[in-house]
């Protein structure tokens, strides 16, 4: 488990946390961060994916504003900082950096070249955009915020895409959820699961809205999905 340096498509470099499987070989997953940076939550997720046999890379998507952000969801000051970074974030550049990370991971020694994307919160929206704009082999979104704003891209999804939506998500109102449901129901390679009674970030262990039963269900669905589309 180590930090690596990735070349940006438009110049400059940024870092990412890379966890490798014990076997030294396998498929890869680019993990798109929440609004708190490449913190211990994201690093733990990468370590867990590595234990499942994947090369897992979580790139620093806030590097263009402030490199090395690692904050938590535990204080008002950290939330304020996270939202400040979120507001200043360019989704276009973020997707570019994820594509650069995808290309980097495919060239890592031991990676078999089959690489998907997995994102949470902000990263959940970016995972959707990776499904519409990149050649990722599959993509998974956990409670992506703002997906409804780019549903005109849904027809561009040609590789398997899985979305987990919290029905009580304070950042994704019911009308937005319905738009997502209707648009993605028309996409053959897309599947959407809704989690009743759950708020945003229901799968973040230790978070205010963590729901173990729903998180376990979503995580098992994700594990089965990734096995089918990256390991099969």
TrEMBL record:
<feature type="domain" description="Dienelactone hydrolase">
    <location>
        <begin position="14"/>
        <end position="229"/>
    </location>
</feature>
<protein>
    <submittedName>
        <fullName>Carboxymethylenebutenolidase</fullName>
    </submittedName>
</protein>
<dbReference type="Pfam" id="PF01738">
    <property type="entry name" value="DLH"/>
</dbReference>
<dbReference type="InterPro" id="IPR002925">
    <property type="entry name" value="Dienelactn_hydro"/>
</dbReference>
<dbReference type="InterPro" id="IPR051049">
    <property type="entry name" value="Dienelactone_hydrolase-like"/>
</dbReference>
<dbReference type="GO" id="GO:0016787">
    <property type="term" value="F:hydrolase activity"/>
</dbReference>
<dbReference type="InterPro" id="IPR029058">
    <property type="entry name" value="AB_hydrolase_fold"/>
</dbReference>
């Amino acid at each position: 488990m180590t930090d690596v340096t990735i070349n940006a498509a438009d110049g400059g470099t940024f870092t990412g946390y890379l966890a490798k499987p014990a076997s030294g070989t396998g498929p890869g997953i680019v993990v798109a961060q929440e609004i708190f940076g490449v913190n211990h939550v994201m690093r733990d997720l990468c370590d867990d994916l590595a234990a499942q046999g994947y090369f897992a890379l979580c790139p620093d998507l806030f590097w263009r504003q402030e490199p090395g952000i690692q904050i938590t969801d535990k204080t008002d000051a950290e939330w304020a900082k996270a939202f400040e970074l979120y507001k200043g974030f360019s989704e276009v550049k973020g997707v570019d950096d994820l594509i650069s990370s995808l290309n980097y991971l495919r060239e890592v020694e031991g990676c078999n070249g089959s690489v998907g994307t997995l994102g949470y919160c902000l990263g959940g929206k970016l995972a959707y955009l990776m499904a519409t704009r990149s050649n990722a082999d599959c993509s998974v979104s956990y409670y992506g915020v703002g997906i409804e704003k780019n549903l005109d891209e849904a027809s561009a999804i040609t590789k398997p895409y899985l979305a987990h939506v919290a029905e009580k998500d304070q950042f994704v109102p019911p009308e937005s959820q319905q738009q997502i449901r209707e648009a993605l129901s028309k996409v053959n390679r897309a599947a959407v699961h809704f989690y009743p009674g759950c708020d945003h970030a229901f799968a973040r262990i230790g978070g205010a809205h963590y729901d173990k039963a729903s998180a376990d269900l979503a995580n098992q669905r994700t594990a089965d999905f990734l096995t089918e589309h990256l390991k099969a």
